[in-house]
């Protein structure tokens, strides 16, 4: 039984000029849902998220570890807890990174994308995904082929919407022009990386997604957890329960440099003055631009999800706060 008021407090934002609305905060299963994860914790995280109005769960073929295991676990939980709620969920998957040996196991060929989505559907036990992404640009496959594969998948009903991830602005423009000219499935959504310390989309992408009516869901809005209080305690700079301490984690200890920590500390002070935690300010900040549809978080615990959703209680920034964030963030460029 889920919270009957789950849609009352979450904000739902229109994804570009499409009919799709997404929760302002969505949950990704990149880390913490793989083979080694605690199943009951995973279940509770998904149930907690849904109770708070997070109805979009983001996956990819390779999420784990082992690759594929996050989709398998998600499929199991879907069956256990969400079978009556499939029509309330936006489930996404992607293909682009290495999945199986040989020439058809990664990148952007039609062969790979179609085969990979079929595998993802089987692992999750669903008939279709709501969004299917080209996970990364393929420098060697013609863009036409990748986009025609997305179109085929949408026409077959295996995905409702098509998206691209990590395509730079000029490539996104070429792709959008192509699908428009050919009458192919539009690029409803773009999934780039964006946070206070990584701002490439501000100058390279957002004007283009806005022009083509494409929504934007930003990944790693917390810089994989660095934009939180987690790494600020000098007595315990690398907590055991952190992504940086996990040998399978994509946040490596060497990425947590003294200059980064100095920025994080100053951002934390700013957040406290706003009456928020740093993770909350980081999320509210990514959502300050209406061209950003959703902030796509990862989580290790249900409590983290609750804290993240509470960011929505304070979404307004003064000009002074924004300028202070810009000043702290731009120090990184100098280091
Ligand atoms: N398209 C792509 O190429 C791509 C790439 C990366 C990610 N993604 C998607 O984006 C999703 C999110 O990426 P991400 O996991 O890097 O996002 P993130 O939200 O920047 O980082 C998640 C980590 O932040 C920490 N955290 C979360 N809530 C917190 C809170 N309230 N307080 C303190 N720390 C908190 C946790 O770290 P600890 O584990 O240390 O506690 C958590 O594992 C992925 O799951 C995936 O769906 C897509």
Describe this structure in words.
The protein has 335 residues and is an alpha/beta fold. It has a single domain, classed as NADP-dependent oxidoreductase domain (TIM Barrel, Alpha-Beta Barrel). The protein is 40% helix and 14% strand. The chain has helices spanning 6-9, 39-51, 69-81, 110-124, 143-155, 169-182, 200-204, 206-212, 258-273, 278-286, 302-309, 319-334; strands spanning 12-14, 21-23, 25-28, 56-58, 90-95, 129-134, 159-165, 187-191, 215-219, 294-297. The strands form 2 sheets. The protein has an 8-stranded parallel β-barrel with strand order 3-4-5-6-7-8-9-10, surrounded by 5 helices. The longest helix has 16 residues, at 258-273. It is globular, with a radius of gyration of 19 Å. The mean pLDDT is 97. NADP nicotinamide-adenine-dinucleotide phosphate is lined by residues 28-31, 58, 135, 165-166, 191, 219-225, 228, 230, 242-243, 279, 296-300, 304, 307-308.
């Amino acid at each position: 039984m889920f919270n009957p008021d789950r849609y009352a407090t979450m904000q739902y934002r229109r994804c570009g000029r499409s009919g799709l609305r997404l929760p302002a905060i969505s949950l990704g299963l990149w880390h913490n849902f793989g083979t080694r994860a605690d199943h009951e914790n995973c279940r509770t995280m998904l149930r907690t998220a849904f109770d708070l109005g997070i109805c979009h769960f983001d996956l990819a073929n390779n999420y784990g570890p082992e690759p594929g295991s996050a989709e398998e676990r998600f499929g199991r939980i879907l069956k256990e807890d969400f079978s009556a709620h499939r029509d309330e969920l936006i489930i996404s998957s992607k293909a682009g990174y290495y999945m199986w040996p040989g020439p058809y196991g990664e990148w952007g060929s039609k062969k790979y994308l179609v085969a990979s989505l079929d595998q993802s559907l089987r692992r999750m036990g669903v008939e279709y995904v709501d969004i299917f992404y080209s996970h990364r640009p393929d420098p060697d496959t013609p863009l036409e082929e990748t986009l025609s594969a997305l179109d085929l998948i949408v026409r077959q009903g295996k995905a409702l919407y098509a998206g691209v991830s990590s395509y730079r602005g000029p490539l996104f423009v070429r792709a959008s022009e192509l699908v428009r000219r050919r009458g192919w499935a539009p690029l409803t959504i773009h999934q780039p990386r964006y946070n206070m310390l990584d701002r490439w989309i501000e100058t390279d992408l957002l004007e283009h997604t806005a022009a083509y009516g494409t929504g934007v869901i930003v990944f790693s809005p917390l810089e994989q957890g660095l934009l939180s209080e987690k790494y600020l305690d000098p007595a315990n700079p690398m907590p055991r329960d952190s992504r940086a301490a996990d040998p399978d984690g994509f946040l490596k200890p060497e990425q947590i440099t003294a200059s980064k920590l100095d920025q994080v500390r100053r951002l934390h002070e700013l957040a406290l003055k706003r009456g928020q935690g740093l993770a909350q300010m980081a999320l509210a900040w990514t959502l300050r631009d209406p061209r950003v549809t959703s902030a796509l978080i990862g989580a290790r615990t249900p409590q983290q999800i609750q804290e993240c959703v509470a960011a929505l209680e304070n979404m307004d920034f003064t000009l002074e706060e924004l300028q202070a964030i810009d000043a702290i963030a731009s120090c990184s460029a100098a280091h």
